[in-house]
Amino acid sequence: MLAVSSEFGGGTSDSVSGALVPFLPCAEASVVYPLHHGLKPPISRVSISWARGSSLRISLFKSSSSESDADGEVGGKVLEVRLGGDGEMSDAQWRRIAYGSVSPFALLQSRKNSVAGFSKMQLSPSLYHLEWWEYVMEYSKDIDVLLGNSKPLTARVIGDQQEILKNREAPTSVKAAWELMEIFYADKLSKAWLPERLVDWLADYDSLLSSTQTTVHSKLVEFQSQLIKLQIIEDESTYWEVLASALAVGWLEIVVKLLRLHGSYHLDQIAKREIENGLVEAVAVLVSKMPRMRPEIEAGELGECFKAKPDFMKAWERWRAQVTKLDSSAFWVQCTHRLTRGGLRNMLQIMLGNLNVLCSATYHWIELYISHFLYIRPLTRGLENMYNLAQKCLQLKPTSCPDKLARLLIGILGENTEVVLAECSRGFGPWMVSHAIELLTAESNQAGILLHEERHSLGEISMEELHRLIYAQVLSSHVLTWQIAPIYLASCIKQGMGLLEILLNRQPIQDSKILLKNLEICRLYDLDSVSTNIMKIAGVYHWKHGRKGSGVFWLQQAHDERCLNRIAQQLFDYVGKSISGECFLQWEGLIELLGSESKHAGGLEFLHKYRDLKKSLQHFDHGKTVIAAQEAVESLMSLMKNPSTPQRFWLPLLYDSLKLLSWREQPLLNVSQTNLLLNKLQELSMARLRPDFVEADLPPQALNSVRLALATNLGRAILEEK
Amino acid sequence: MAITGLPKPPEIHRLTQSKYIDSVRWLPSVSPFQKHVIVAFFDVDTDTPSLEIHSLDPPKPLVPLSLWTPPSRISSLKTTRSVAAASTISGSVHIFVTGVERHDISGLEPVFTVVGKEFHMGSVNGVDLMEGNSECVSVGDDGRVNLVNFGVEGSFGKGSYRKVFDGNGLVSYTAVKWASPSEFVTGGYGFGLQWWDIRRPGEAVGQFKGNWNHGKTSGIIHSIDIHPSRKHTCLAGGSTGTVFAWDLRSQQQPIILSGVGTGETMTHPLSESEVWEVQCDCYIKSSSRGLSSSRILPAMFCSEDGILAVVEQGEEPTELLAEPCAINSFDIDLQNPSDIICSLEWESIAIVSRP
Question: Quaternary form (chain A) (predicted)?
Answer without folding.
Answer: Component of the nuclear pore complex (NPC).
